[in-house]
TrEMBL record:
Protein name: Aldehyde dehydrogenase 22A1-like
Organism this protein belongs to: Cucurbita moschata (Winter crookneck squash)
Domain Aldehyde dehydrogenase: 61-527
Family recorded in the similarity comment: Belongs to the aldehyde dehydrogenase family.
Gene giving rise to this polypeptide: LOC111460471
Keyword hit for Cell membrane: no
Pfam families per the UniProt record, alphabetical: Aldedh
Molecular functions (GO terms): oxidoreductase activity, acting on the aldehyde or oxo group of donors, NAD or NADP as acceptor
Keywords from the named record: Oxidoreductase, Signal
CDD domains, per the entry: ALDH_F15-22
Length: 603
């Protein structure tokens, strides 16, 4: 009894010590990042205070400049260079040189880097969100939810589990190699390239950077021409943290430009991560095929949102609004097709229409608005085109949000949340990625019909299923072809950073996030060595030693059956044959010539 009491006391003391250690704040260095040129303090120079009118034709590389402006106000922010192929190659070469040094870093040093970044992000949330809002038009609430939370979650997961999943992993050796030890090692790939969109300018940079750097790589990120202003600030945070841990700042770089810049990046790195449209994804694959580098593609989505008749309707309406309207269509995992059971269809439409009519749209930093601007005028025009096509085919608009005070030069940048009914799959709105705050609602009668409708899409990124029966919801979700699914919620998969993220069909392939995404940043190397070196080594049996014996094939067949036979008696019989043939090979043959000579002499 005394023994168990002693163990209990020791265990309790250990738990108390762990708790006390948790109360001691970690000693994490702070970093200073110059933000003087991105702060809107009302004292901007005349050069950077005018209203910018973007060209109607897409800017080409020959312009040599990426012009930046606030979508919500059209206020000019400045420009960045559109890098040439040679300039991109130079940036990648610098990252490659830095990576050779960083590959030798310890996990302790890498964790310190992540803690420094986490500390800065938490302490500067307002700055980060305001910059994201100014560059993309989203509200700062949406920026915090989509940019800050997801990034902090990723850092926390890497701190907790990253080293565990990158350490060598033992594997079984199998029957034929019991005398061996097998393992998988995860080595850095080198320099990873990433091309990311404008919808989450902060997280879209940090997401690939965190995994790549923690795995020992360098990385060069080409940011969207529509989010270059924020991207070139965000990379300063990372480079300041690298300097604080004694790592070369060129390990991580952000480049700006158009198509030529992206093409140059693909042809010069060791792996590509691309987040964007399906069309550009195909071009990335074609370019990557020239150098045969691995590619991860997270492409378009047309996520289904299925609502069964046995749900808590108020809860589902709240989730549906967040799923479709978050970030004014900046949500890459947004719900774009709503399938509602016929028994609650009218109630669902009425409730969500009432809520949508109360949503206000306006400049996100000029007042309390629920929704900001669309990032590009082209995107706003595309949304209207999809709505017009649906209306022409018989659909009806039943509710739209209301506009606040819109800046005179930026009216075309805004698109209100819109509820549309009487839709069907002949409409472009139900087939093409909208990437905007449109809620097309269609009714279904049976679970099988809901599954059929959800799968009737060339995309397969994510989906959500709502039902009062968890079992029913899981059954429906299991039949839908998508890379992720949320049961009675939406897009929470992405906040769970232990899970891989990606799609199927025209939504791409490969995964980032989770163990799969982290190890995708690695050269996965299989290693086999002798378990009891040098005492037991692989030696070829005599029948298989060159020149092979006449019974070599018979010996090999018996060896296979002795090792893998399904019946124990067959295996024992085959083993006897193996031993018999080995003994025959080891028995010295009689010298017949000597016998013959002796006979002749006797004669």
């Amino acid at each position: 009894m005394a023994f168990w009491w002693t163990l209990l006391v020791i265990g309790f003391a250990y738990a108390i010590c762990r708790l006390l250690l948790m109360l001691i704040p970690p000693n994490v260095p702070s970093i200073e990042v110059d933000a003087s040129d991105v702060m809107d303090d009302g004292n901007q120079t005349q050069e950077n205070s005018y209203i910018y009118i973007p060209p109607r034709v897409r800017t080409q590389q020959q312009d040599k400049r990426v012009q930046c402006y606030e979508p919500a106000t059209m206020k000019y922010l400045g420009y960045f260079p559109a890098l040439s192929r040679d300039e991109v190659n130079d940036r990648v070469a610098s990252a490659r040189k830095a990576q050779k040094e960083w590959a030798k870093s310890s996990f302790k040093q890498r964790r310190l880097l992540l803690r420094i970044l986490l500390k800065y992000i938490i302490e500067h949330q307002e700055l980060i969100c305001e910059i994201s809002s100014r560059d993309t038009g989203k509200t700062i609430v949406d920026a915090n939810m989509g940019e800050i939370m997801a990034t902090c979650e990723k850092i926390t997961w890497l701190l907790s589990e990253g080293e565990k999943w990158l350490k060598p992993e033992s594997r079984s050796c199998g029957r034929a190699t019991l005398h061996k030890k097998a393992r998988v090692e995860f080595h850095p790939l080198g320099v990873i390239g990433a091309i990311v969109p404008w919808n989450y300018p902060f997280h879209n940079i940090f997401n690939p950077v965190l995994a790549a750097v923690f795995a020992g790589n360098g990385i060069v990120v080409k940011v969207s021409e529509h989010a270059s202003w924020s991207g070139c600030f965000y990379v300063r945070i990372i480079q300041a943290a690298l300097a604080a841990v004694g790592a070369p700042e060129s390990l991580v770089d952000v480049i700006t430009g158009f198509a030529e810049t992206g093409e140059a990046l693909v042809s010069s790195v060791d792996k590509m991560i691309f987040v964007g449209s399906t069309g550009v994804g195909r071009m990335i694959m074609k370019s990557a095929a020239e150098t045969l580098i691995p590619v991860t593609l997270e492409l378009g989505g047309k996520d289904a949102f299925i609502v069964c008749e046995d749900v808590d309707l108020d809860h589902v309406v709240n989730v549906a609004l967040r799923a479709s309207i978050t970030s004014s269509g900046h949500n890459c995992t947004g719900a774009e097709r709503f399938y509602v059971h016929k028994n609650i269809y009218s109630s669902f439409v009425d409730k969500i229409s009432e809520r949508v009519k109360a949503i206000t749209v306006g400049p996100p930093l000029a007042g309390k608005y629920d929704m900001g601007a669309i990032c590009t005028q082209e995107q706003s025009e595309k949304l209207q085109s999809l709505v017009n096509d649906a209306l022409d085919r018989g659909a009806k608009i039943v509710a739209r949000g209301t506009f606040g005070h819109l800046p005179e030069g930026a009216v075309d940048q805004y698109f209100p949340p819109t509820v549309i009914v009487d839709v069907n799959h002949t409409m472009k709105l139900m087939q093409e990625e909208a990437f905007g705050p449109i809620l097309p609602i269609m009714k279904f009668s049976t679970d099988d019909e809901a599954v059929r409708l959800a799968n009737d899409s060339r995309f397969g990124l994510g989906c959500a299923v709502f039902s009062g029966s968890q079992r029913r919801a899981k059954n429906i979700a299991s039949q839908i072809r998508s890379g992720s699914v949320a049961i009675n919620d939406f897009a929470t998969n992405y906040l769970c950073q232990s899970l891989p993220f990606g799609g199927v069909k025209e939504s791409g392939f490969g995964r980032f996030a989770g163990v799969e995404g982290l190890r995708a940043c690695c050269l996965v190397k299989a290693v086999v060595e002798d378990r009891w070196w040098p005492y037991i080594q692989t030696k070829h049996p005599k029948p298989l030693t060159y020149p092979v014996a006449d019974n070599a094939f018979e010996f090999q067949m018996s060896l296979v059956e002795a090792t893998y036979g399904l019946n124990i008696w067959d295996r024992l019989r085959a083993l006897v044959n193996v031993l018999k043939m080995l003994s025959e090979q080891n028995t010295p043959a009689k010298d017949n010539s000597a016998v013959d000579d002796g006979s002749k002499r006797a004669d």
